[in-house]
Write a structure and sequence with these properties.
It contains 3 helices and 4 strands, in the order αααββββ. By secondary structure, the protein is an alpha+beta fold. The protein has one domain. A 4-stranded antiparallel β-sheet has the order 1-2-3-4. β1 and β2 form a beta hairpin. The radius of gyration is 14 Å and the shape is elongated. The model has no long low-confidence stretch (mean pLDDT 90).
């Protein structure tokens, strides 16, 4: 039996993205960008996932983050409301 590790990691990414989308209040609770980078749940994404965040500094109330693995992504925007988009970047 052959295991496609890339597909397995993409599935891991997509499952984690779905968890965040289903219960954002469980994952998105930050007072600073530093808090985002310290979030333990980021380690639940497959190795090789990248993320970046902006906002929340100097009293800002808005927060933006992008989490990517290969062409799959989770985009998080926290302004007056939380918006989470998941998808695949076009080729």
């Amino acid at each position: 039996m052959l295991i496609d590790f890339i597909q397995s990691q993409l599935t891991q990414f997509d499952e984690m993205a779905a968890r965040i989308q289903a219960a954002p209040e469980k994952y998105i609770n930050f007072d600073s960008v530093s808090d985002f980078y310290k979030a333990k749940w980021l380690n639940d994404f497959p190795r090789g996932t990248t993320w970046s965040a902006t906002g929340l500094d100097d009293g800002a109330e808005q927060f933006y983050a992008i989490i990517e693995y290969r062409k799959h992504f989770v985009s998080i925007s926290c302004t007056e409301k939380i918006e989470i988009r998941c998808g695949i970047h076009p080729e």
